[in-house]
What we know:
alpha/beta, disordered N terminus, 280 residues, six-stranded parallel sheet, Rossmann fold, 10 helices
Amino acid sequence: MLVARRALCVAPRTDAIRTGMDSLRSTQNAVRSTKINAVCFDLGETILNFGPVDVVKLFKAGGKLTYDYLKSLSQPVGEFKPYCRRNLGAIRWRYWLSLLTANDFDARELLKKVNQPKGIRLSHEQWDELVWLWYEPLSKCATVEPDIKDTLNKLKSMNLRLAILSNTFINGAALERHLAQFGILDFFDVRLYSYQFRFRKPSRRIFSAAAERIGLPPQNIMFVGDRINADIRPALKIGMTAVLKEAYTNHSKHLPPAAHKIEKLSQLPALIQRINTPPA
């Protein structure tokens, strides 16, 4: 009888211990399943900081550079004003259309469409150079954080995959040339631009496509961007950890409760370490 009573007393304790261990294992599994293994960045005002700029003025300056380049190649460009009006008008019209359709365009292909009927004949490399010259004046407005290479090196040393997902019509050849000028292109394993898809941020489909290209489920990816509606909310909805980088584009905007906020990218390694460290 005494043994039976002891058994009855021990059994609840054993069950409680087992329940506690199961709960601990569940917590540890949950932590492991949401561990950050990759960071996906927006580009403008996140990695490259342009600030408020007069885009039309800068593109007109780019138009003069492309005009002079084509003339140096003895291409039939005609007078400058009609050339600039034709190209800039096509870009502006297609840009506004992309806002309505949520479908970006490839600036290189658009420039071909506008200029080839006028007799412009260029090699693939020369079309890339033309796109770069349109973009170059804007590129000169951009800055990166002084310690950006140190930050990206730290993230890489944490065995994190790094990616870029950007809404843009600028061809990737120009953007990647710009990143290479800052010496940071090779840090990014995956580079995705919205003109490569039939949809753009904030569509959940493009975030899903990014996760697929990165090769990880969304819950293991951190997305860092500067816009609440285009970057942060859709990233959260798909299950990513979302981080808002402070920029002029989000001043006085309300941060969703589940999101994080940083002032500088250099704060990311410490933030990821806190997220990935299991609670004591």
